[in-house]
Amino acid sequence: MNENSTTTQPADNSNNQWQQEVLSKLVFASLNEQRRTRRWNIFFKAMFLAYLFILLAVVLISPGSSTSEHFGVGKHTALIDIKGVIAADAKASADHLLPALRAAFKDKNTQGIILRINSPGGSPVQSGYIYDEIKRLREQYKNIKVYAVITDIGASGAYYIASAADDIYADKASLVGSIGVIMNGFGFVGAMNKLGIERRLYTAGEHKGFLDPFSPQRKEETTHIKQVLADVHQQFINAVKQGRGKRLKNDPALFSGLIWSGEEGMQLGLVDGLGSSSYVAREIIKAEKIVDFTPHEEFFDRLSERLGTSISHSLLQQLGPSSAIQ
């Protein structure tokens, strides 16, 4: 009996030791998991606080509030960029630019406003909205002048907007003008006939399909659309004449749709002087400090995207391949 007991004791000790090792591993694994959870909680809380801080900064510098009043800039020139195609769903739209204009006029430290334009034009409706609001605000705030500064190009609808300013400046090589209206498309009737393709178009209304590129043109419809374009063109001409007044030279080519250099534009009365935004702020408005009132809603979207990418990258680095498998 004694021999049997002595032979089983080492096995019991080995079994107890194995159980202790397993228990120890489980305890340490649990502790590590708790530590890891705490670390991630701290990480995400820190990122959330950073996110809120950046959001607050964006709100404070948005055109909805006076930048100079919040940050003590003092007397300044307000700057609003008009870039790219002017359209309802673009950055250069009335919905984006009008709140910035109103904020710039409302700011008590604004000494003058610069519309820095770099646009080939676009929607006559959006251009008209912006033009009308500039004229309205100029009438309301008579002591604040508006200057359009054309950089690379200020053509068509962009010049429509510029003509609402008190004065227009450009570089000698800027492209200005293009006072006209355009509608274009393609006609595939000949190609369809050659290919033996039959066009089937059903409408309610005699002229409902008159812009269809697969149908032959009809004289009365072509005459009608040309008249519509002529009406819009005349609206454009009237707005430019109202804005520029007697400064425009009596040249029929002005409203032909042609463009000119900034230097030629001065001779025709399309431009008042040559100079950049900083020149106008410093020498004309006499307020060298420039505050940008341009709306930057897209900045927050870019920030969110970059922040999300950064978090994903950090997660992958922290988790590693082994944790991902778990």
CATH class of the largest domain: Alpha Beta
Which superfamily, in CATH terms, is the homologous superfamily of the largest domain? 2-enoyl-CoA Hydratase, Chain A, domain 1
Poorly predicted tracts of residues:
63-70, 318-326
**How many separate structural domains?**
2
Write the CATH architecture name of the largest domain. Alpha-Beta Complex
Largest sheet: 8 strands, mixed
- CATH topology-level fold name of the largest domain: 2-enoyl-CoA Hydratase, Chain A, domain 1
Distance between the termini: 50 Å
Mean pLDDT, rounded to whole units?
81
Which structural class is indicated by helix and strand composition? alpha/beta
> What percent of residues adopt helix (DSSP H or I)?
40-55%
Tally of individual helices: 10
Which radius of gyration do the C-alpha atoms yield? 34 Å
Describe the overall structure.
The chain has 326 residues and is α/β, with parallel strands linked by helices. The chain folds into two domains: 2-59 and 301-325; 63-295, Alpha-Beta Complex (2-enoyl-CoA Hydratase, Chain A, domain 1). The protein is built from ten helices and eight strands. It has helices at 2-60, 67-71, 94-106, 124-140, 157-162, 189-195, 219-244, 262-268, 277-285, 297-325, and strands at residues 76-83, 110-119, 145-155, 167-170, 175-177, 259-261, 273-274, 290-292. Strands 1, 2, 3, 4, 5, 6, 7 and 8 form an eight-stranded mixed beta sheet that branches. Helix 3 (94-106) packs parallel to helix 4. It is flat and about 110 Å long. The chain starts with a helix and ends with a helix.
